[in-house]
Amino acid sequence: VKDYSFESLFSFDGYAEKLPDGKYRIVKKKTFIDDLTKLPNPDWSWMEFDIYNQNPNDPLVAGLPIMCTRGCPNNCTYCSSKLYWGQRFLYRPIEKVIEEILSSYNQYGIKNFSVVDDNPAFDKNWFLKFCQSYRKMPQDINISFNNFSIKTVDQDVIDGLKIIRQNKITIAIETGSQGMQKHINKRLDLKDAAAKVDLLKKNKIRMHVAWMIGFPNETMGQINETVNMAKKLRTYSIQVFPVFPFPGTKLYEEANHKAS
Ligand code: SF4
């Protein structure tokens, strides 16, 4: 080997490198896979499922990850999704997703699946068709969605969730401050978000809600707005993330600028 540089040894398209001084360097991706029909199913043959199946009754613990759609066209300042998928939304053919689930079920006896998509109902038509196709699934298969955008929730989507026997979803509201919603470019209308939480409750769908605290320049008043909204919504469960600026995001630039 004549050249030990990172680029020479690892010619990945898009990566983050930690430099000796502790800083990070981002080399942006230049190409993305456009045609998801060509992706093979993941090879799980090496996986020792018995070790992980400690609590097979909880699909959130024991769900095999599966990706049905890829990416999100939104542009929240803290989100790193666009760095690896591009700022766009693609979906797999529904029959390929169903085939992947059935293949893991038949080959390994997996019954719980955890959808890791960023914004699975962004294309409502795709999502509703997926729900209809899911009707043919064996009754002992469970699927759970981990990142559901509250913007996409309406009665049609909720009816779809019922078809796929979904009684709990995870949604991210992040901040209860309308001003901070704008600042982080999440741009949820908080009244609308609260109304959708009510709609989900009326339909007996439990929610796990993600919140974030510690944005640069966030005031105690804004943090209290988040705490108050989380209390007021009284969802099934919540998680509160301390803000972490991922290299390559706008939030990272903002945090760096504030630190310098
Ligand atoms: S809506 Fe979610 S996935 Fe989309 S950009 Fe915002 S944080 Fe990322």
Automatic annotation (TrEMBL):
Q: Which part of the chain is the Radical SAM core domain?
A: 56-260
Q: Which GO terms describe its molecular function?
A: catalytic activity; iron-sulfur cluster binding; metal ion binding
Q: Does the keyword Iron apply?
A: yes
Keywords from the UniProt entry: Iron, Iron-sulfur, Metal-binding, S-adenosyl-L-methionine
Keyword set includes Metal-binding: yes
**CDD domains in the cross-refs:** Radical_SAM
Q: Identify the InterPro entries for this entry.
A: BchE-like (IPR051198), Elp3/MiaA/NifB-like_rSAM (IPR006638), rSAM (IPR007197), rSAM_horseshoe (IPR023404), rSAM_sf (IPR058240)
Q: Which residues form a coiled coil?
A: none
Q: Which cofactor does it need?
A: [4Fe-4S] cluster
| Name this protein carries in UniProt | Radical SAM core domain-containing protein
